[in-house]
Amino acid sequence: MPDRLAEALAELAAPAEGLQQNWHDVARRARKARRRTAMALAAAGAVVLASTALAVAPTLLRSNAVAFMRTVAIEPTGAPPAVRRAFAAHRWAGRPRAAASLATTHGRAVLWVAPLRGRGWCEGLQLPRTRFTGRTITCRWWSGTNGPFGGGFVGPALFVGRAAVTDGRELRLRFADGSSVDVPTNDGFYLYRVAERRLIKSEPRALLLREHGRVIGRLRLSSLYGGPLAAGSASHRPGGVDLARARAVLAATTRAGRVAIFSAPSKLAPATCWWLWIRRGTYDSGCVGNDRDTTSLWRVVATRVRVRSKVLWLLWGRAGSDFASLELRYQDGRRVPLARKHGYFLHVVRGPERVRGHRPALLVGRGANGRVLRRQLLLPFAWAPGP
Amino acid sequence: VGADVDELESLYRDRFRAFAALATAVVGSTSEAYDVVQDAFVTAVRKRRAYRGDGTLEAWVWRIVLNKARDARRRQRLDDLDPTAATNGHHADADVRLLIARLPARQREAIFLRYYAGLDYAAIAEVLGISSGTVGATLHSARGALREVMEVADA
Q1: pLDDT confidence of residue A52
Q2: Which one of A127, A208, A299, A306 is most buried, by most CB atoms within 10 A?
């Protein structure tokens, strides 16, 4: 897990591609700003008055919700010493209460909360096998301008936070297919993981706060995989590979050209390198030490990539030798074994498999005894736009 | 003391992409990020005499860009926030971006400055007005929070 986070952070691409600098525009704006200074001052006064009026109105309208979010009604409960110590060390936090919990593979995760001097709350997510410290705790001072949703992490599968679920209100999670599920809350706090069977069918799109059936608040979640396709820009094959010993391990013919996984030993270290080749370019690559090559290696890449105006849906990767079999599961319940060669696999998702409801949604790896070793959701396919 | 317009122009031309990357990450859309950067430099030009020279000019401008981005984000209604709008098609990053978008503001900004803008700890400290040690602690906390959520989401 630490490796995955470090890699993800290191690979965060600058998201401002496409923006062009324009200093003349800065100069023009500066001149315009100077000309408007007097007018802006007058307008600013008007805006301040107007915005004050606008800010006050909703605050008054939502006063019950604001009061709700500023207090914690859950009674103090027993808490492990580490949790008690962490909250006690916080300057403003009250005693901790268990607001919600969730079963995980390693034990229960518990959301601990505490009042914040009548002006908000503090929260900390206690995870199995993880130390709970002062840094785990986040405190939120609440005001009327904060809206009905507060804090916490929101992810494709995991939802943690608080909403102004006062009497008569309910919190629901709506999916792209129009369905929705009830999100259980305790004093507005929620710790909710979407069931895998739901995730593979449709994508969460919004948290809805409803009052007597009417939606009064909405926290929209943009589509993770519905936007532009992966850039698909060509990269380079790993440096230092022994090209004389390179070989195409797996290959497939697609509308965009030949797709192949090449493999070659490294000349720089006892490692094996590989790269994904599409038509005339390398699209992904990597190396792994030979000592890591056999067991518990699990690299799964599901992506949609545009190559010469053709959109390819590709599933490729590598699984260590402790994986005796790989199985591809579809949204419609079909299960198909996935062939490997020297640990690599490559699957091109074609026509009928791209139809919503029939797409590949899950890859399951089993050991020799049939036990499931790893599962990987294929959300870029399951949640892709289209019919 | 005070900044020179030529210096500001030079800084703009050299570092536009980094400024735009940070602004995009904070406000969530490239179109708004462009306005944030432009407006930040308009402010820098108009208030250049207020630069007292007690830090680097670049850090002073970073602070303006960050404040402009914060203002722009604050103007957005909460339910219109689009924490993954900045994915720009790099889907492998989307989960991490989503999680970052939900971090407390200080941690989120430290992550942005470190990983989007590529600033070192000293520069981040100058921009955020905190010590380098606090920058390290903040980034440590942010990474820890991200790691925890990734673990639970995967569990």
Answers
A1: 46
A2: A127
Other Cβ atoms within 10 Å of A248 Cβ, number: 11
What is the count of residue pairs from A and B with beta carbons less than 8 Å apart?
177
Nearest-neighbour CA in chain B from A222: distance (Å): 6
All residues of chain B having their beta carbon less than 8 Å from the beta carbon of residue A12 are 93, 96-97, 115-116
* pLDDT tens per residue across span A236-295: 777 788 888 889 999 999 988 899 999 999 888 888 888 888 887 888 777 887 776 566
Residues contacting A122, CB < 8 A, separation 6+: A87, A90, A92, A93, A94, A113, A114, A115, A116, A137, A138, A139, A140
**What percent of chain A has a predicted confidence (pLDDT) above 70?**
82
pLDDT digits (tens, 9 = 90+) for B10-47: 889 888 888 888 887 777 777 788 889 999 999 999 88
What ipTM was reported for this prediction? 0.74
Full 3-state SS string of chain B: CCCCHHHHHHHHHHHHHHHHHHHHHHHCCHHHHHHHHHHHHHHHHHCHHHCCCCCCHHHHHHHHHHHHHHHHHHHCCHHHCCCCHHHCCCHHHHHHHHHHHCCCHHHHHHHHHHHHCCCCHHHHHHHHCCCHHHHHHHHHHHHHHHHHHHHHHHC
Average pLDDT, chain A: 82
CB A152 within 8 A of CB A192: no
Q: Please name the residue of chain B whose CA is at the shortest distance from the CA of residue A135.
A: B141
Checking if the pLDDT of A199 tops 60, the result is yes
**Nearest-Cα residue of chain B relative to residue A301:** B92
**Which residue type does B114 have?**
R
Contact predicate B99/A155, CB 8 Å: yes
